[in-house]
Specification:
Blueprint (H helix, E strand, L loop, with lengths): L1 H9 L4 E2 L7 H5 L3 H15 L4 H7 L11 H10 L10 E4 L1 H13 L5 E7 L3 H9 L3 E8 L2 E2 L1 H13 L3 E7 L13 H14 L2 E5 L15 H4 L4 E6 L11 E4 L3 E3 L5 E3 H12 L5 H13 L4 H28 L9 E2 L7 E5 L6 H11 L1 E2 L1 E2 L12 E5 L5 H18 L1
Parallel strand pairs: 1-14, 3-4, 3-6, 6-7, 7-8
Antiparallel strand pairs: 2-9, 4-5, 8-9, 10-11, 12-13, 13-16, 15-16
Helix pairs in contact: 3-4, 3-12, 6-7, 6-11, 13-15
Bound molecules: pyridoxal-5'-phosphate (PLP).
């Protein structure tokens, strides 16, 4: 994130397909004061009718596990995401802290290995590295992690006296692959996880970008005991709120050997890292949810429509620039996700920092090397384009600049 921010800062006029950040217009629409008032009024209705007291409470330290847990649980139930209860939720500083805390809580021995769908979100790879957790890549397919690969890794780990403790997986238009798991592949993965005792770390960051009517059930719904659900309000709310969550009702052995509810262990760990998630940020997100009938799907609807339109525009622009040109025939390939923010392009050349620097300096267009997201060399020739931060005109101009860049470099 810092690297991408720095590249964007150095090239303010470049068109940036780099950040997976929400569109500035959508962030600008959030009326923070109104949402805060909605939440405080709601507190006054449900509890004591003293609004000033409730406001002041949100300027204090708050409970480590969070203050909007009951609202989140109701939203998860309303959206059919999970049969959740507030006491099993820990509110975190974004999904990033959720990933970090969860890894810290469930990995208790150096023989435990984290399997990561490869390519995978850079934040899980970084968190595992910081915690000295051994990782292993699982090949990604259009339908999510390869079960053959996962099965083989489980066997291999066992033969080395290790175990695959958990698999990180993002079933809904993953970052960076854009892959989406259909119902059958979700069920098969859940069955394997249940049979083999592997925890599924389900990252739902882009779940909102499927229409509610066609969205398959979450892994958490299919296999609640095997799955820990992790999510964020950065994409459907705003990233500056820094509000994410973990839903985990499992009981896990603590370092001291006792079996405790995971959500409360996460809160204990959190109290040593960030004390609590800002009550003001939580209150604003609580207000946003109340304004949208306690539904993350409803809250994300405008976002879904805008990003789907941007994605279509990007795919069309790539077709126009590269699809019909004989010059590029057989050289560039890209996937066609139906949601999320990302498209990946495979090229015949190594794609690295220096190529990005050339693209920025000479052609005014930014993107992200896919190698940032990979545990092996399988993505070294690929780049990731994000459509989330741009308007249609910028996307079309950016694709034209990409054409100039590829003409010069391929
Ligand atoms: C798949 C995925 N998970 C987690 C995150 C982190 O989100 P947050 O801003 O909530 O920390 C991101 C952010 O881009 C993401 O793409």
């Amino acid at each position: 994130m810092n690297f991408l921010n720095e590249v964007m800062r150095r090239h303010p006029k470049a068109i940036s397909f780099a950040p997976g950040a929400p569109h500035p217009d959508l962030i600008g629409e959030v009326d923070v004061v109104h949402c805060l008032n909605t939440y405080i009024r709601h507190q006054a209705q449900v509890h004591a009718p003293d609004e000033r007291k409730h406001l002041l409470e949100h300027l204090e330290y708050g409970p480590a596990q969070g203050i909007i847990n009951e609202l989140l649980a109701e939203a998860f139930r309303n959206d059919g995401m999970a049969q959740a209860e507030g006491r099993n939720i820990t509110v975190t500083n974004g999904a990033q802290e959720a990933l970090f805390l969860t890894l810290r809580a469930i990995f208790t021995s150096p023989n435990q290995v984290l399997a990561v769908t490869n390519p995978g979100y850079a934040g899980i790879l970084g968190a595992a590295r910081m915690l000295d957790i051994r990782t292993t890549p699982v090949a990604d397919t259009e339908n999510g992690p390869s079960l053959d690969d996962l099965g083989a890794l489980i066997g291999q780990a066992r033969s080395q006296n290790r175990s695959i403790r958990a698999l990180y997986v993002a079933p809904d238009f993953a970052n960076p692959s854009g892959n989406f798991m259909d119902l059958a592949s979700r069920k098969s993965l859940c069955r394997l996880a249940q049979d083999e005792g592997v925890i599924l770390l389900e990252d739902t960051a882009y779940g909102f970008s499927s229409p509610a009517s066609t969205r398959p059930p979450t892994l958490k719904q299919i296999a609640p005991a095997s799955t820990i659900l992790i999510g964020t309000f950065s994409k459907v709310g705003f990233p500056g709120a820094r509000v994410g969550f973990v839903l985990a009702e499992q009981r896990v052995q603590s370092v001291a050997g006792e079996f405790l509810p995971l959500a409360s262990q996460l809160a204990t760990l959190k109290s040593m890292i960030s004390i609590n998630t800002s009550p003001l940020g939580q209150a604003v997100i609580g207000g946003l949810l109340l304004e949208h009938g306690l539904s993350i799907s409803a809250l994300g609807e405008r976002h879904r429509v805008l990003y789907q339109s941007n994605l279509k525009c990007l795919l069309l622009a790539l077709d126009e620039q590269f699809g019909s040109s004989r010059k590029f025939a057989g050289m560039l390939e890209w996937n066609r996700p139906e949601g999320g923010f990302f498209v990946r392009i495979r090229t015949p050349m190594a794609v690295d920092h220096s190529l990005l620097a050339r693209s920025a300096d000479e052609f005014g267009v930014l993107w992200t090397p896919m190698r940032f997201f990979s545990l092996d060399q399988s993505c070294d020739n690929e780049l990731r384009l994000s459509c989330s931060y741009l308007d249609h005109a910028q996307i079309e101009e950016g694709a034209s600049r990409l054409r100039d860049f590829f003409e010069a470099t391929l």
